[in-house]
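Friendly challenge for the regulars: who can give me the structure tokens for this chain first? No prize, just bragging rights.
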Amino acid sequence: MNEQQYEKLLNINTSGFQYGFPKLVQYHRYEPTPYSGLDQLFEVYELPENPHFLDIGCGKGRVPIYIHHRFDIPATGIEMDQKFFIEAEHNAEHYLQKTGKKHSPLQFINDLAENYCITENDNVFFFFNPFSVHVFRAFVNHIFDSIENYPRKVDLLLYYPSPQYMDFLQNELVLQCYLEVNLLHEKNENERIIVFRIS
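First reply, four minutes later:
Bragging rights claimed.
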């Protein structure tokens, strides 16, 4: 399915880019993750046991709604921008009106990612370069603290990962790439999804 077909299927509107975004050094503008990339990822990637999915910097809610619809698992989106948070809430309402209630919760949180208290169940984290490597480093360190307190397998999913993110994960934390998905029909070699598994 193309972008418009997916939006119609899910009864949501998450397209478009963010214009007029304040020039904040630490946070990046909204750009929706292509549905085709998500489809390609889940053709080869298997979620861990008892998955709880978080999209960090979820914008209008596309990825959590897609995940909730496809897998019926708990999905949470964290978004700092209040306008996008409200749009994500509206999208979730329209999606649930069309598709009906599912067994798993779908929620959105309006806050800075670094303020989010990672729970013992959170184990899949999705990033599309939502902020600088400094904020990313702090957030990943919170994940490691959580794993230390509640040992479990955790996956980090990075769409179009920045070189700074990769350098931090591979050279500072010495994590090994668990899976690399080179996306089809993309001209940029960085158009890929990298999965790091922490266990």
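The mean pLDDT is 91. Residues 1 and 39 are 9 Å apart (CA to CA). Your move, everyone else.
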